[in-house]
Amino acid sequence: MVSNSELVEKAREAMNMSYTPYSHFTVGAALLCDDGTIYQGGNIENASYGAANCAERTAFFKAVSEGKRDFTAIAICGGPNKDDTDFCPPCGICRQVMREFCDPGRFRILLSADHGNQIREYTLEQILPVSFGPDDLK
Ligand code: THU
After folding, report:
1. What does the pLDDT look like over 94-115, one tens digit per residue?
2. Which of 7, 11, 33, 102 has the smallest C-beta neighbourhood within 10 Å, fewest atoms?
């Protein structure tokens, strides 16, 4: 059983793997699978700015590309980091990627800064209401 604070620590660690020479806005994510494994990701920027990949999607794509399909929670750390309640909420594209693989009522999103012990928790349903997902294509 991985605690919220343990998952946040993994997300903070993942900030070290970010590549952010343009924005210097460093984000780390740690994605917890239902089987207890954790995939970390940092944001990866590009000289062609639009080619940047967010930390959350880095973590998701690493996990999905290794066969994982069932997810419990994701912790996201970093961003402004001015104080310990200055969180980085996931962008719309990342929320939609979560929606592809996660049960909106069950999947949890934990937000924290790069320091401190403040953690804000949401379900995917709360931050992406009235969403479009795989079932809508059936
Ligand atoms: N970014 C993330 O990694 N996650 C988010 O949810 C929001 C934005 C990254 C993308 C870019 O590298 C930098 O933050 C500034 O937008």
Report:
1. 999 999 999 999 999 999 999 9
2. 33
Q: What is the CA radius of gyration of the chain?
A: 14
CA dist., res. 17 & res. 61, Å (int): 15
Find, among 45, 73, 77, the residue nearest to 60 by Cα.
73
Beta bridge partners, 31, equal 39, 74
Does the pTM surpass 0.90? The reply is yes
Of 13, 56, 66, 125, catalytic: 56
| Ligand 1 geometric centre to CA of 122 (Å) | 19
- As for ligand 1, residues whose beta carbon falls within 6 Å of it are 20, 23, 25, 27, 43, 45, 52, 54-56, 88, 90-91, 94
CATH class of 4-137: alpha beta
